[in-house]
């Protein structure tokens, strides 16, 4: 059992080289997309050997998800408590790591088509990239429930994914880039009225 765990735990790249490789991977995903990304392309961009990459990451999916989960260009939104659902959503969505950051949106654009075809990428993406971000979002809505900002009978789980779903739809289906104005329109005209449910304002 110990032996199998040791096999699964691949050695880290020494010094700051791992961060450089991760940053290079994010940049290549943003430029080429997941399908066209190769270990050779990342090795060239990072000025590293392909053998170095494979010693640390056994597959392209492992490397890419590790990169977008940890690299400086795709930070995890901070769990801030502003005292209101609107304030929390604005802070998360318009701040560092939010929808208006060019790098996260360009990276997601590079992955979106491959996520439907590559089960390994989809699993790793959901577990290591989406899950931590969804946890932050859940806390925001749980606090809103506790403050009485969300009406009884409101489907909180569905509501919590509505903002990112609409932003992604605008970005990748309608071709409308995320802006602070668009985010505020969705929050004020969709999320907050839906959160109140049948309550009077």
Automatic annotation (TrEMBL):
Record keyword Transcription regulation present: yes
Alphabetical keyword list: DNA-binding, Transcription, Transcription regulation
InterPro entries given in the database record: DNA-bd_HTH_TetR-type_CS, Homeodomain-like_sf, HTH-type_TetR-like_transc_reg, HTH_TetR, Tet_transcr_reg_TetR-rel_C_sf, TetR_C
GO molecular function: DNA-binding transcription factor activity; transcription cis-regulatory region binding
Entry keyword Transcription: yes
DNA-binding region: 38-57
Domain (HTH tetR-type): residue spans on this chain: 15-75
Protein's name in the database: TetR/AcrR family transcriptional regulator
């Amino acid at each position: 059992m110990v032996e199998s765990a040791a096999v699964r735990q691949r050695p880290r790249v020494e010094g700051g080289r791992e961060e450089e490789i991760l940053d290079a991977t994010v940049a290549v995903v943003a430029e080429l997309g997941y399908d066209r990304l190769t270990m050779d392309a990342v090795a060239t961009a990072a000025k590293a050997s392909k053998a170095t990459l494979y010693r640390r990451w056994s597959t392209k999916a492992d490397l890419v998800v590790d990169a977008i989960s940890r690299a400086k260009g795709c930070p995890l939104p901070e769990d801030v408590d502003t005292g209101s659902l609107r304030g929390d959503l604005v802070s998360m969505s318009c701040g560092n790591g939010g929808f208006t950051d060019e790098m996260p949106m360009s990276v997601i654009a590079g992955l979106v088509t491959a996520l439907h075809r590559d089960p390994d990428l989809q699993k790793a993406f959901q577990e290591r990239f989406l899950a931590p971000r969804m946890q932050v979002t859940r806390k925001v809505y749980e606090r809103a429930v506790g403050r009485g900002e969300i009406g009884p009978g409101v489907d909180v789980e569905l509501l919590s994914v509505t903002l990112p779903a609409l932003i992604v739809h605008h970005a990748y289906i309608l071709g409308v880039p995320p802006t602070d104005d668009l985010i505020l329109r969705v929050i004020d005209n969709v999320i907050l009225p839906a959160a109140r449910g049948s309550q009077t304002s």
